[in-house]
Design goal:
3 domains, oxidoreductase, Butyryl-CoA Dehydrogenase, subunit A, domain 2, flavin adenine dinucleotide binding, four-stranded antiparallel β-sheet, Alkylation response protein AidB-like acyl-CoA dehydrogenase, alpha+beta, 11 strands, Butyryl-CoA Dehydrogenase, subunit A, domain 3, Acyl-CoA_dehydrogenase
């Protein structure tokens, strides 16, 4: 996989920190059903700060590593589900930092971006809406949350769903629809006008605060806290979502590399029918197939990242990578569980959690089927113009 000397040096430090300091936290009782506690996250981040690996993809001068360099670092951070939290490379914060770095003005960066980069606050991205309301999901044009200008404020009303990390977040990015189209607003949290109705019980458990259903009732936001211009929200969403879905691929590839390590060690030690499991073709071939899938994921991520590094939005490439990588990671995680048999479905190792997290990843940031549908539309458009 492509890397530079600076990215490799950062990635090596990140990997050492994750393996030596973060992995022991995986058995911490503060890891709950709706993610690790904020107390634990901040404890790990202080250790990351001391080790010089906090927010490693953003350099001290505020500039970012390239996307290809970021891949080198984020894959290593993902060797534990807690690694991205400790190193401050986790969703939704990583994607929100990227968005604010590209769209926010200097005053907004000082108020909202700075505490995120410093790892002292978490954020939430309020876009998806409840299906029962007929709101926006994979189709953001269905957005029901509305905003209207009232003097030097905007007033927002609506409901949101699957809002990762809303509980405990300090910074919010809220999408709503004005007469001009979609808008984005920066919000200090908590705010009494934003009420968490419930935190959903989901298959995954890696993100602090879980995924919430939220009601927004007459939220007043100063006009100065609109991100960019009225009606440009969907454009800004693409600025965020293309690299963000690729970052998910990077982090969970790290997790699957770890699962493959654990499953391989198990297969080489566990005896059955007179020989190690790995010597049985049915087992050894699964691990060999995982090796191939891991390499293909690396290549796919590197290719999509190189397109983003040209300045392109890379929506087609990131969609292709999201489909290919998420499906491959599911195969990898599933085979690791299968190789380990009964042990694979217990919490004795992290393999069980990685399997659950990757299953959820096939849906988050756009289900496989939506990305394939989008790619099929491109094929049709290209054919018409051929």
């Amino acid at each position: 996989m492509f890397s530079t000397d600076r990215a490799q040096a950062i990635a090596d430090k990140v990997e050492a920190f994750v393996r030596e300091t973060v992995i022991p936290y995986e058995k911490d009782p503060r890891c709950g059903f709706h993610g690790p506690s904020d107390e634990m996250v901040m404890e790990m981040r202080e250790k990351a700060r001391a080790a010089g690996v906090l927010t490693p993809h953003i350099l001290p001068d505020g500039s970012h590593l390239t996307q290809r360099e970021t891949a080198t670092v984020l894959i290593r951070s993902g060797l534990s589900p807690l690694g991205p939290l400790a190193c401050n490379t986790m969703a939704p914060d990583e994607g929100n930092m990227y968005l604010l770095g590209h769209v926010a003005n200097e005053e907004q960066k000082a108020q909202f971006l700075k505490p995120l980069v410093e790892g002292r606050a978490r954020s939430a991205f309020f876009m998806t809406e409840p299906a029962e309301d007929g709101g926006a999901g994979s189709d953001p044009s269905m957005m029901k949350t509305v905003c209207r200008q009232d003097g030097n404020h905007w007033v927002i009303n609506g409901r949101k769903a699957f809002i990762t990390g809303a509980e405990g977040a300090k910074v919010g990015i809220v999408m709503a629809k004005s007469d001009d189209g979609a808008c984005m607003f920066l919000v200090d949290l908590p705010d009494p006008a934003i009420r968490i109705e419930r935190v959903l019980d989901t298959i995954d458990s890696s993100m602090p605060g879980g995924h919430a259903v939220v009601r927004i009732d007459n939220l007043r936001v100063p006009a100065s806290q609109m991100l960019g211009a009225s009606g440009e929200g969907f454009k800004y969403a693409q600025v965020r979502l293309s690299p963000a879905r690729l970052s998910h691929c990077m982090r969970w590839l790290g997790g699957c590399i770890r699962a493959q390590e654990i499953a391989s060690a198990y297969a080489c030690k566990r005896m059955a029918f007179g020989k190690p499991l790995v010597d049985h073709e049915g087992v050894g071939f699964m691990l060999a197939e995982n090796m191939i899938d891991i390499r293909q994921c690396e290549l796919m991520i590197d290719w999509a990242a190189s397109v983003l590094d040209t300045g392109s939005l890379g929506t087609v490439e990131s969609s292709m990578a999201k489909v290919a990588v998420s499906e491959a990671l599911m195969r990898i995680a599933d085979k690791c569980v299968q190789v380990m048999g009964g042990t694979g479905v217990t919490q004795d190792t992290i393999v069980e959690q990685i399997f659950r997290e990757v299953r959820a990843f096939r849906i988050y940031d756009g289900p496989t089927e939506v990305h394939k549908w989008s790619l099929a539309k491109k094929i049709k458009r290209d054919h018409k113009h051929a």
